[in-house]
Amino acid sequence: MKRKQWLLMVVALVAVGTLAGCGSGSSVTSGSGHTKATAQTTSSSTSSESKLTKDEAILKTAQQLNVDGKYKQSNKKLSAIDLADLSKKGFESLKTEFFALQKSNDKFLLKQSKSNRHQAATTKSGVATTKTTTPATNHSFDSYSKFVGDYTFYNYDSDRLQSDLTIASDGTVTQNNNDGTAFYGTATIKASSATGILSYDVTTDTNKTKSISANVEVDVVWDSDNEHETYYGYTSYDGDSVLTDGKTYQGDLVNEVWIK
């Protein structure tokens, strides 16, 4: 009888030990999963903070370039910031400063030196004279007469410099500005099959944007500094000829769109 009682006690002790072991294993497994989830969250948060710190440093450098009058370099520096980052939580302030700086750079770039593109002042014997530069002409527009003529800056804004644009049949280009200045250059045109180009839906008379498929590509070389600007031409649903540079402005707008 005593032997039987002793055996029962041994079996009971073994059972209790087994249950304790299972409970401990479950606790360890659960704790391990929680630790992994916490580690992943911490890693994601650290990565986001690291990106924000990096982007803030880029913005600060770009702002200093703006102060120094180096607007083109400032915009180039801004391009190092991934626009996708600006929509993330915690990037709100950076987004506001980013687009404010971009607008400032663009405004000064438009005003800077372009008014002197057509005429170069020279001094001889102490008397100022004016020398008119004659741009080289071409016949590339002979087959694309639809894109020759007078254009108006779409989404007219008095804060923007652009007013109207004229492309002559010989490729000469004149951009008249709201401050009374004018830019001059020469354009060439060729067929294009580019797709996904950003523009406005000019049939709505609103700021609604759309992606277009280009019919032509117009390359303008401005006289003063040989700077190249590319425009993509297409025909709107209303039959108007439209030129767009396909670039974003202030995040959700288009930099330049011209409608004939």
From TrEMBL:
Q: Where is the signal peptide?
A: 1-20
Among its keywords, does the record have Signal?
Answer: yes
Keyword annotations for this protein, in alphabetical order, are: Signal
- Signal as UniProt keyword: yes
The highest taxon in the source lineage is Bacteria
State the residue spans of region: Disordered: 25-50
Record's protein name: Lipoprotein
